[in-house]
Each structure stands twice: as structure tokens, then as C-alpha cells.
Amino acid sequence: MRELIAPFKPTKLAGIESRGFLIAAPLALELGLGFVMIRKRGKLPGDIVAHEYDLEYGTDTIEIQSDAISPGDRVVVLDDLLATGGTLAAAITLIRSQGGKVAGAACIMELTFLSGRDRLDAPFASLIAYDD
């Protein structure tokens, strides 16, 4: 994963709840970068910034702490799986709303038949692509 995200030149890694934490947190530690948690509504302490987004079957909300992203931060968003792309696209929007530059996004596995990559307006990479 380190080699996959290196071209994005991040200053922070953002992990999407909760399996994204397992990727982003240790990788941020190894690389000496900041780590940002993107969580479901109501799980973060302190001041937060929320973003509501549409799902196939309704809406959901993700949040970050209000001081997690500084203008100009180069953020790479990490998760375990890219399926339809809704949550990852919402995370990208949330980071940008705080002045962060989304340098890229990456996942361990991409389910290509669900076309989630098409919903992302940031460079994306995956370690494994599953077509069926």
C-alpha cells in the first residue's frame, strides 16, 4: 500500500470507518504522516464537520473533527474496499470542504463490476481488482 500511495505525495492519510483505520493509521505512523478518522455520525468527540450523502437506499452522514484538515493538506483517503463509491466520494467532498487537497484515494480491493471508481473525482488505485 505504501508503494501504491507514494506517487500521491500525501501529508495526511484519512481512514474511513472502520476498516480504513486498520490501513491508514499504521501506514501514517510508518510514513510519519498525520492521520484523520472519517466516522459515522455521533462517534467523534469535540467540534465536528458533517457531510450527508445519498446511498442507493437512503442517506448517511460522515464526520471529521473540525481541526483535522488544514487548508493545503495533501490527503490520501484509504479504505479496505471500493464498491459503489458513495462513501469514498463523500469523504473526498468532506475533506475538500475543509480546504484539504485530495491527492488520491486507495483501497485494498475494488469491485470493478460496481463501477465505484466512476463516482470519484480524484486519482484512485487499488491493490486488487475483482471483476466478477
User: Order of strands across the widest beta sheet?
Assistant: 3-4-2-1-5-6-7
How far apart the termini lie comes to: 23 Å
Give me the Rg, rounded.
Answer: 14 Å
Shape: globular
Given helix and strand content, the structural type is: alpha/beta
Query: Beta-strand level of the residues, as a percent range?
Result: 35-45%
Overall description:
This protein is an alpha/beta fold and 132 residues long. It has one domain: 3-Layer(aba) Sandwich (Rossmann fold), CATH 3.40.50.2020. 22% of the residues lie in helices and 42% in strands. It is built from three helices and seven strands. It has helices spanning 2-5, 19-31, 86-97; strands at residues 12-16, 34-40, 48-55, 58-65, 74-82, 101-111, 124-130. A seven-stranded mixed β-sheet has the order 3-4-2-1-5-6-7, with helices on both faces. The longest helix has 13 residues, at 19-31.
Per-chain topology:
Elements: H1 2-5, E1 12-16, H2 19-31, E2 34-40, E3 48-55, E4 58-65, E5 74-82, H3 86-97, E6 101-111, E7 124-130
Parallel strand pairs: 1-2, 1-5, 5-6, 6-7
Antiparallel strand pairs: 2-4, 3-4
Quick tags:
7-stranded mixed β-sheet, Rossmann fold, about 130 residues, alpha/beta
